[in-house]
Amino acid sequence: MKISVGLASLMALACQAPGPTDPGATAPGSARALESTSCTWRAQDSGTTNDLFGVAFVDAKHGWAIGDGLILATSDGGKTWAAQVSTPSKSYDDLVFAGANKGWVVGGGPGAVLATTNGGSTWNVQDTGGTRSYDFVAAIDGNHVWAATGGDNPQLASTADGGLTWDVETINISDGISDIFFADQSHGWAIGFANNHSYATFDGGHTWTDQGLIAVDTFFYRLWFADAQHGWAVGEGVSFTSDGGATWTAQLPNDNERVLGGLSFIDSTHGWSAGGTVGGGVVVSTSDGGDHWDKVIIPKGPQGLQLLDVSFGDSTHGWAVGFAGQIFACLPPAPTALSYDGATTADFGDDAVLAATLTDIGKSPAVPVPGKTVTFTLGAQACTGTTGADGRASCTLTMGQVPGPYAVTATFAGDPDFASSSQAVPFLITREETALSYTGGLLFAASGTASLSAHLTDDSGTPIAGRSIQLQLGSGASQQSCQAITSAGGTAACSVAPVNQALGPAAITATFAGDAFYLPSKATASGLVFAFTDGTFVVGEQQAELGAAVTFWSGQWSSLNSPGAPAAFKGFASSTSTTPPSCGGTWSAGPGNSGHPAATVPAYFAAAATAQITRAGSTISGDIVRMVIVKADPGYSGNPGHAGTGTVVAVWCGQP
Question: CA spacing 20 to 30 A to 313: which of 353, 372, 510, 656?
C-alpha cells in the first residue's frame, strides 16, 4: 500500500504519546483553529476510528475518504460523512475521481478495482486480471485509468474504457514503486520505492525509463504533474521538475522532521501536501507553483496525528485525513451579512441606539450568528456591541458631533469561522431642541436698573452652557436690551440701566438665536415699569391687597385705610427712612396738607403699606410693611378734597 516503508517510520513518530514538551497538545478532532493562507483547519467528525489513507474532493461539497474497511462520502463539505462501503476485512489504499460521478478505489483484493459511475451510490468490483492487490490508482478522465501494485516487479493495469476492460502487465521497475501519476494518455511517472528514482513512461505505461535520483538522502512518496513537463514530488521534502522529470530541484529541503505523504494541486500554481512532524500533522501549501511554501501544524493528541493524504476542491476548500478516523477540513470562513436596523437620526446631545443583525448567509435560510463583536462607527464616534442569540448587537452613542448628514457603519471584523461584513446607512444628526424660560425681575423702577435673566435647557431639561442669550425690555424703537452667556447651570443674566420705558406694562423677551448644535428658542414675559414719587403716598395694610381699590390721598384717609390713625394724616409721607422707600423702613409726615404732594401722580407709582401709625406732637409716622404698585385713577389733585384713588396692580416687596 502507498504508506508502506517510508511512511511507516513516520507513523511511528506521529503516534508517540505527547509528553511534557508537547506544547498545545489537544485531543484528536479538537476544534482548535490554525490559520493557513486561505482557510482554517478544523476537525470534522468522520464517524469512525478506522485509519483513513486517502481522500478526494471534486468540488467544495462532494468528496470521498477511504481506509481500513471503509469508503466514506460527503455531499455537504464534510459536515456529515456516511459510509458507502463497509467491509472490515478490506483495506482501501488509494482513490481517484474523474468528476462527481466516476471514481475508482484500489486495495480491495488481488486484481480488484472498485468503481462507481454514480458518485458512490453503488460500487462495483472490476476484475483487472491482476494477481496482486493494487496500492495506487491514477486517471486522466472517465475512461483512462491506471492501477499499480507497490512491491517489487510491480503490476500495472490500464483501461481506456473506464474499466470495462483492463490490460495487465509487469513493468520494468524491479525495486517497486511508491506512487504513479499520468498527465495524459502517454506521459506518466512513478517513484522508485527502494532507490528513490523517478521513472517516466511515454507510451501509456508499457515501458518505463529510469530518470535517476530525485534528491540525495530524501525519500519521496507522492507525485503530481500539471502537464508533460511540470511536476512535483513530496516526501521528506518537496522537489520540482520543469523538464518532465529529467532533472529535479528542491523547493522544500529535507529538515529531518517533516514527512509528507499526500499531494493535491488544483492548477499549476496552487498546491498542498500533508504529512506529519514531531508536533503533529503538517500541511504545506503554495500559491506560486512551489517557489514559496507555507506551513501549518495541527497539534497531535493522545493518539497522535499523522496526515496521510490531502485533497482540495478549490483554492479555499480542502480536507486531510489520517489515523484513527481523523479528518481535518480547511474551509473559508462562512460568509456573513450585517443588516443595520438601529436609529438613523438623533438630535445633538441625545442618545441613539445603534443596532445591526449578523447572519450566516452560507446557510439557507440565513441563521443568526451569536457572540460576535460588532463595531458601530458614526463619524468620529464609535461603540461596540455583542450579538445575542438572535444575532443582534447594539450599543448607545451620545451624539457629540456637529449636526449634519453622516453614515453609520456596522462592521464585523471576521474571525476564523465567519467572514467579515459591514453595512453603512445614512444617519442624520439634527440640532437639539431647546427651551428658554425667563427668570428675571418683572417690576422695574423708571430710571433704575432692570435685572434680566433667562434659563436655557435642551428638550430633556439639561442645562446648556456657553450660549448667548439676548434679553430685551420693551419693544419697538424704545426697547432696551443686553446680552449674556449661559453659565454651567444654563442661566444667563444681565442688566439694563437706566430703565427708560413708558410707565405701565412692558414686554420682556429672551431670545436664543440657535447655532450649529441647537435650535433657536424664545421666552416672553410681561413686566411693569413704575415710578417713585417725590415723597411717598401711604395706604393701609389691610387695603393693600393685589387687585384692591385703594385711596392713597383723602381728607378721610384714616377712616378709609386705618381706623384709629390720626385724622390729621391725609396719606402723604414727606420723608422715608430710605430712598427709595423699602420694606422694613419707616415714614413720617406732618398733619393736614403738610408736605405739599405733587399736583399730579404718575400713572403707575410705588406706595407704602403701613400697619402702625403713631403721632408725637406734630409728627405722624408709621412703618412700611409692604411696597405696592398702584395704578392711579383720574381725578387726583394736590388738595385732599380731591381724593387720590387707584388699584393695587403689583407688590414690590413684602408679603401681599
Answer: 372
